[in-house]
Every structure is written in C-alpha cells, then in structure tokens.
Write a structure and sequence with these properties.
mainly alpha; four-stranded mixed sheet; two-stranded parallel ribbon; 26 helices; 58% helix
Amino acid sequence: MSNLNPQLLLSNGFYENLHSSFINGTNARGVYSPMQFTLRLRNDVQNEINSITPGFYSPNELSENQTQAFSTYLHETIHWWQHVGSNYGLISSLKYPAQSHINHSYLKSILTDIGPIKSIAKYDIQNPNSNLNINKTLNYWHDIDFANKIAFAPNNLKTITNNPYFESWGHSYQIMWGSSIWTLISTVDNNFSFLPNIREWEAEFEKLRKQKIKGFYHGSPNTIAPIGTKSIFEGQARFSQIQYLARGKNYTVADFEKLNMLEGIYVECFDLFLKILGEKRPLNAVHPLIGLFLLVCDLSINPTNGFPFEIRNYESFIISNDPGYRFILLCQQIRDHYSVLKIAIKDYSKEEYITISNILASSIETRSPHESAGFICRWLTSEQTIQDLLKEEETYRFKSENLPIRLFFSKFLRFQEDKYKYPHIFCWPGINLTETGRNELQLAFDLFEKHKALFIDGIDGDIYHSAMKGYTDEQVDSTLNGFFAWNSVYDLTRQWIVEPGPFNFKYEWLSSKYSADEMQNWASTNFEISFGIRPENFKII
C-alpha cells in the first residue's frame, strides 16, 4: 500500500467560484470551477502528467506517480463532464449567464430610473418595494440561485425557506430550468421549433399553486432528499478514480480506505446506496455493485422532464428533475423490484449500460440518458441553427453574440453525440481507460482527449485553452478572450446585484501577465460595453 501517494491522489472536488490561483501551496490537488469552466491541477500533479510521453497508455505502462496523478486529472475531468455532459449539468451551468441575460433589460431600466447604485440588494432593503425592475431583478436572481443551492445540498432548503425572496421549491426549479432553456432559445431556437416550449409552463405551474400542490406554493411543507448533486458528483468522480487505479494496479477498496479516500462527501452517496440496497461495502473496486452505483449516478443527473423533452408531468416536476430525489427513487426500485441488477454489471459494456439504464429509467417513469442523447442527436441533422453552431465549434470561430452559451452548448451537443455511441465509456471511464485491448484503449483515450475541460491552468497558474490540436493560436486565443470577457460581465453583474461594498476586480486567477490596473480596465471596459457605464462610476451604498 506504500506505493499510493496521497499527495497526488486527493482532490478538493469543485468550487462554485474560484477567484484566485490558490491551489498551489495548499492541500488541494485539483479543482473544477463550473462558473469559469476551468480545471486546475496543483503543480506536482501537473508535472507528473506532463512527464508522460504523448500517447495512450494503460496504467501498467506508467509509473506509480504518473498513474496516480492521472487519476486526479480524471477525477476533475469527470466534474467537467458532469456539467457539460449531463442534462442537469447543462441547466445548472447556464444559470450564470441566465442570471445576467434574463435581467439585462431590468438592469438597464434601473440605471435609467435610479442611477448606478451598488448593491441593488442593499438598495432594496433601504427602499423596499420601491421599484418594479429591482423587484424583478432580485426575484429572478434569487430564484435561480435558490434552485441551484437546493439541488446541490437539499438541507439548504431549511434556511432558504426563511428568505423573503423565496416563493417555493417548485417555483425556483421552474425559473432555473426555464431561464436556462430561454438562454438557449434566444441563441439557437428563436422560432421555438425544437427546444421545450417554456411559454406554456407558467399557466400549468399556476394551476399547481392554486391547487396547493406540495412544493409549488408559498409556505408549502417540503420533504427533501438526504443527498444532492454535491454528494452525487463527488461519489461518481471518486469511484471512477479508484476503479482506474484498482483495475490498473490491483488495489482493493480497503487500500483506498486506509488513505482516507473513501470518507465524508466522497462516500456519502455510495454508503446511502448500500444502505437502501441492504448491502455491505465490497472489497473489489470493480465489483458489480460499484458499477451499478456509477450507473445510478449517471441516471440521477440526467432528468428529462422539461429538457430535452417537453414536460410530461408538471406535478412531478420536482421529484423527476431533482438529482437527489432521482437517486433515492432509483435505489428503492433496485431494492424492491430489480435486485437481480446488483450483480448484472460484469463486462461494463455498452449493452449492459443501455439495458439496465432503460429498465431503471422506465421504473421511475422517465426516459434514459441514452434515449435522451438520441433525441438530442436528431437536432444535429434536423435543425439548421444547430448545424451552424457546430460549424462554429469545428472551426473554433464562434459568433460574439452569447459566445459562452454558444461555446458551452456546442460542447454539450458534441458530448451527447459521443455518449449516444459510447455510453459505457462515459459512465465507467475508470474501467475503460484501463482496457488491455489496444483498440478499446485508443478509443477511450481519444474520447477523453476530445472532451477535456475547456480551460485548464498552466504551471504558471494562468488559464489556457485546452483545445489546441487542429486550431491556430489566433482561433484559440480569440475564443478564450471572448469567453472570459463575457465571464467578467457575469461576475460584475452578480456583484452589482447582490454583493455589498465596492466592485472586486481581482482577476489574477485568469492571467499573471497583466497588472491589477490593466485587469481592472479590461473588466470595466467589458461591463461598459454591456451597460454603457463603468463600475468605477457607481455609488456604493
């Protein structure tokens, strides 16, 4: 067991915000930031990965340190996949641009009616209900934020219900799903020809409010799931990581327990899975139970009731879309009706994935991730706007309008295209990146390279685009610069709406090649282009 090096193995998962290059000199080995679509690795981990000669290898062909460093890289890449490759990940990732885009006209009106004041939230406290545009801005912003926090850790609902901006759980989910889909509609589907028709939603959700359906009206009691996406994401990433290590180096679950790799948030979801199924923790890291757990995680984060399909059942909108609820329901179905599935995953194959995922999805009256991916893939051939978007992705020359949305959605579509063909590789990457057959190993590594995180930090701590092959420096730099210009506007808009005090221009996490004054001028100029005024001209209240 002495061959396992904890300095290269333990990651710190992912962060909602990462506004510094703090990872070096800390215990964090790797992190993923969903707001910035950026993956960071500590320098010692990067050095081990960079020491690998370009190519594809089984773990047995790498040194112990190289294998373990790559397992951390795999762990963080899975966090990227969870956001860019799942239906819930898409909806939740688009919340950042949605909070800015959906409020843009209201914010412009606030500038006209009241002037440049910060923060809007503090102004509303001092002048309650004095301006309709402020009310709309704060309600939209908080509804989306509430939804994300509840799905991330359901216990958050206990404090959120006391917030004066909170209407109901169902309302928050309706707004986050609807706002995120609206950003896509305004970008690629202005005619409402293929994305869910969110214009029909409000009347149906209003019926639920009037009928006092649990979860959909103000003051409603709520029954929360014991886990959320935080636990699911970390469990999925950690067990994929240990399967990679175990399959390649013959380690057992007990070996990882001794390193404290299976405790806290990293095992919370798995232990709940075992508890519901009435099973003990297996010793073999490639045991069928662990394969089933990873499949349940994949099903949990791929709801379909409202995206990509139209809403099938409004009353079940919460439990059919909340990842934590889905996880519990799937486990209960296995326990009560499909115990044979506990030992069904033996080959970690495409056939096993499709068969079992279809059974379990049908058991909770939803569509499987494979059916969902197939439905989305039809857009690639039937919709001209999607074909145009993917041409932008092929050339890495994106239109500046809504660039982050165009970029992220194009990567989501490419992911669905490959996940439909090779669902087993994305569900069980730790297994498939250790196959002994060279053709299978080549395919798995090609897919891993193709679907790397958009942005990754270098040894110097600066952010770089990871998609270098086949693209010129001009193409790559243009996309990176355009994306982060928009990202800075999203961040400053968030600060304007809810953060007290002066604007924070600490963007050194992006590049160390510019002075603080230069970075502030860059961010302020981006904001001015969007709102016609610089942040420095705001009155801080």
